[in-house]
Specification:
single chain, 10 strands, disordered C terminus, alpha/beta, TIM Barrel, binds iron/sulfur cluster, globular, 8-stranded mixed β-sheet
C-alpha cells in the first residue's frame, strides 16, 4: 500500500510543522478534500516491507512499538478541523500500516463524535483484516481502501515481504467476508511491479479472488515514486493491456498516469465501441489512447446516445449503451433468481 493520498499528479500534500500527526488537506480526485491522520508519525512501523514502498526499507514487524496517544491525535485533529472546516474525508493512514495502531477502535469512536458530516476513510494493506478486532473496527468507517497486490503465496511473499505468519489466503478470505458485511464504500487497490505481479497467471489469480469481492472500484496502478528497492513500474499501455485479463464486469480503474506519455492511436467508431465493451474507459484513458480524430468520433457516438456514462465515486466511466443495457438486464435476471 502506498501510504499517502499523494499519488495523483493533481494532488498536493502539506505536512503541518506544528502537528506531525496531521497532514493536508490533500485534494484527491478519487476521495475529495482529505485531511490525513498519521497513526505512526514518528517512525515507519509496518507488517509489510513492500519492494515498491516509497518509505525507507525496514523489516516487517508484527506490532507497533512507538505509539501516539489517542488524546494527542484527537487534539491535533480538532485543531486542524478548525483551520480547515471544508473537509470531505478524514483519512487514517500511517508511516506504515494504520491498522497496527492498537487503539484504532477507540480512535474511531472519538473521531465519530467530532466529525459531523465528514466521511472517514482508511488506507490499509489488508494484512490485519483477518484479526476480528481490526475487521470490526473497519466496519465502522464510511470508506475503506484495501490493497491486494497478489493472489498467489509466491508472488505475495516476493512483492509485499510480509511479517512471519501473514498468509495471502487468509487476507483474501477476510477481504471477501468484509466486502459482504461492510455498508460503506470499499475500494481495492492493486499496484503492479514489472516482472512480479504483471504476468497473466498472477492477474488471472487476482481476477478469480476479485469475483467474490463486492466493491465500489478496483484501482490499478504502478510505481510512481522512487521505490525502497530497485524495482520498476509499468507503462500506461502495459497496465491497459493487463486490465483486459480482468473480467469486464469488474469496476477496474487505471490510476497511474506517470508513464502515460501517450502514443495515441486511431480508432474507428466500431473499434471505439468494441474497446469500451471490453473495458469501460475514463477521460484520462481516452486522452492517453485516442488521437484527435478518434476523440471526435467518440464525441459523435456520445452525442448519438451510442455511448453512455456511469459514475463510480467521483470517476466517470464510458461504455457502450448496449453494454449498459445488457448489464442492467443481467442484474435484473440475478434479482429474479
Ligand atoms: S511497506 Fe508496503 S504496506 Fe508498508 S507502508 Fe510501505 S507500501 Fe505501505
Amino acid at each position: 500500500m502506498q501510504n499517502t493520498l499523494s499519488q495523483n499528479a493533481n494532488e498536493s500534500v502539506k505536512k503541518s510543522t506544528k502537528m506531525n500527526t496531521i497532514f493536508g488537506p490533500v485534494h484527491s480526485r478519487r476521495f475529495g478534500v482529505s485531511l490525513g491522520v498519521d497513526l505512526s508519525s514518528s517512525t515507519k512501523q509496518c507488517n509489510f516491507d513492500c519492494l515498491y514502498c516509497e518509505l525507507t526499507p525496514m523489516q516487517a514487524i508484527k506490532a507497533q512499538h512507538t505509539i501516539t496517544s489517542v488524546e494527542t491525535i484527537l487534539h491535533d485533529l480538532k485543531e486542524a478541523l478548525q483551520s480547515h472546516p471544508n473537509i470531505d474525508v478524514i483519512t487514517l493512514t500511517a508511516n506504515g500500516e494504520p491498522t497496527m495502531y492498537p487503539y484504532l477502535n477507540e480512535l474511531i469512536t472519538r473521531i465519530d463524535a467530532i466529525k459531523g458530516n465528514i466521511q472517514t476513510l482508511i488506507l490499509s494493506n489488508s494484512a490485519s483484516l483477518s484479526d476480528e478486532n481490526v475487521f470490526n473496527a473497519l466496519l465502522r468507517l464510511d470508506q475503506v481502501k484495501l490493497s491486494l497486490d497478489a493472489a498467489t503465496p509466491e508472488i505475495f511473499r516476493k512483492i509485499d515481504r510480509p511479517a512471519e505468519g501473514i498468509e495471502i489466503s487468509k487476507i483474501i478470505d477476510a477481504i471477501q467476508r468484509f466486502s459482504q458485511a461492510f455498508k460503506g464504500k470499499l475500494f481495492i487497490e492493486i499496484l503492479f511491479v514489472r516482472g512480479l505481479n504483471d504476468t497473466p497467471k498472477e492477474v488471472l489469480a487476482l481476477n478469480s479472488a476479485l469475483q467474490n469481492i463486492q466493491c465500489e472500484r478496483i484501482d490499478i496502478g504502478t510505481i510512481d515514486r522512487p521505490p525502497a528497492y530497485p524495482v520498476q513500474g509499468l507503462e500506461f499501455k502495459e497496465l491497459y493491456e493487463l486490465s483486459h485479463y480482468f473480467d469486464p464486469s469488474l469496476p477496474i480503474h487505471i490510476v497511474s498516469r506517470t508513464h502515460a506519455t501517450a502514443t495515441p492511436s486511431h480508432y474507428s467508431q466500431d473499434s471505439i465501441l468494441t474497446t469500451l465493451d471490453k473495458r469501460p474507459l475514463t477521460d484520462d484513458d481516452i486522452n492517453a489512447l485516442f488521437d484527435e480524430e478518434s476523440k471526435k468520433q467518440f464525441q459523435n457516438l456520445l452525442n448519438a446516445g451510442k455511448i453512455t456514462q456511469i459514475e463510480r465515486s467521483n470517476i466517470i466511466f464510458y461504455l457502450p449503451s448496449q453494454n449498459s443495457e445488457r448489464k442492467r438486464q443481467k442484474s435484473l435476471k440475478n434479482l429474479d433468481n
